[in-house]
Amino acid sequence: EVGASALLLRTCLVLLAFPIYLLSFLGVWEPFCRKVFFPYILDKIGTVHDKKSKKHKLELFRNLADFRSPSGELRLLEIGTGSGSNFQFYPSGCKVTCTDINPNFQESLTKNMKKNQHLHYERFLVAAGEDLHQVPSGSVDVVVCTLVLCSVQSVSSTLREVLRVLRPGGAFYFLEHVAAEHSSWKYFWQQVCFPTWKLIFAGCCLTRELWKNLEEAKFSELKVQHISLALPWTPIEPHIVGYGVK
């Protein structure tokens, strides 16, 4: 339920962002957002987020090599690779398949690939997390997903695909922003910003309680940690980080 004061402020925000709503209605905003605005803004926000999340990512990805297949290979698939800011955390010789629904990150992606030549880049697929049909079942050791589950159409379908492509004993690593505590001011502001934020930032939802989806997804083992990563002037702060084993 959204309270009256949140609704009022939400309406004010919609009025402020009215030109974008109008462009969206005319069918102009989405293609512009996908091709120009979102890759640009994600690069800027991503740089700040990467600095703040670095120690958490170093800790998170520390045991990646434990999930090598019996042959000694580590086949990793990343959902929503974007500009490739996670490449630096992957172990040497790791075979990476990159997937993203948006193919407009080439410039920053190429830059990060050049920086991280310790990896083997196997495939680049334009694919949504909910539909990884180009990837055979049980064919990867690790799936990685950071700041992506907020904007997929269906979290449960995405997690089903994750479990399908993972080999038994493989692992799913995640770091995602989530809904704040319902009684908090942070949650109040998430409610206020929700529709306008979702429109401007390519479907990003502020109030998903992703830990619940992960608990329902039937991993044999699941480690979830709630952390705080404040991004200045945004309603994003509460995050979850961890991994699940198939």
Descriptive labels:
globular; membrane; 7-stranded mixed β-sheet; 246 residues; S-adenosylmethionine-dependent methyltransferase activity; 39% helix; alpha/beta; Rossmann fold; Thiol_S-MT
What does this protein structure show overall?
The chain is of the alpha/beta class and 246 residues long. The chain has one domain: 3-Layer(aba) Sandwich (Rossmann fold). It is built from seven helices and seven strands. Strands 3-2-1-4-5-7-6 form a seven-stranded mixed sheet, with helices on both faces. Helix 5 links the parallel strand 4 and strand 5 (166-177). Helix 1 (4-16) runs parallel beside helix 6. It starts with a helix and ends with a strand. The mean pLDDT is 93.
Query: Approximately how much beta-strand content do the residues carry?
Result: 15-25%
Low-confidence runs of at least 5 consecutive residues? none
Form type: globular
Number of helices: 7
CATH C-level class is Alpha Beta
Query: From the 3D coordinates, which CATH architecture would you assign?
Result: 3-Layer(aba) Sandwich
CATH topology: Rossmann fold
Helix content: 25-40%
Distance between the termini: 35 Å
Rg is: 18 Å
Order of helices and strands: HHHEEHEEHEHHEE
Rounded average pLDDT? 93
Q: Biggest sheet, in brief?
A: 7 strands, mixed
Strand order of the largest sheet: 3-2-1-4-5-7-6
Total discrete domains: 1
The SS-based structural class is: alpha/beta
GO molecular function, one term: S-adenosylmethionine-dependent methyltransferase activity
Pfam families: Methyltransf_11
InterPro entries: Methyltransf_11, SAM-dependent_MTases_sf, Thiol_S-MT
Protein name: MET7A protein
